[in-house]
Amino acid sequence: MESLKCLNAMDFVGNWAQWRSTLKDAIQRGRDFGLSDDVIQKLSVKVGDFFATKVCPATPEEELMKELWDTATPEERKTLATLIFKLVDK
Fold first, then answer.
1. Domain ranges of the chain
2. Which of 9, 29, 34, 36 is deepest in the core (most CB within 10 A)?
3. pLDDT over 90 percentage in the chain
4. CA dist 6 to 51, 52, 55, Å?
């Protein structure tokens, strides 16, 4: 059986709190470049798709997010992306 080839997100950000901070910074940078929140949220669905297929969950939080993403319909994924956006943007 071929082993799963994927990235470990925590290799890049370290922990859950830092991951949230990194996302918050990315949202702000998008705004600084003139992107609307709606555009950023739409892009976050594409990022979520990438993470779901290329990033190995390394924490319980990442595992939960992957399971939710994999179970969700495309419309539900938009909702999840919006909720994550709101979570890190507060």
1. 57-90
2. 9
3. 44
4. 9, 10, 5
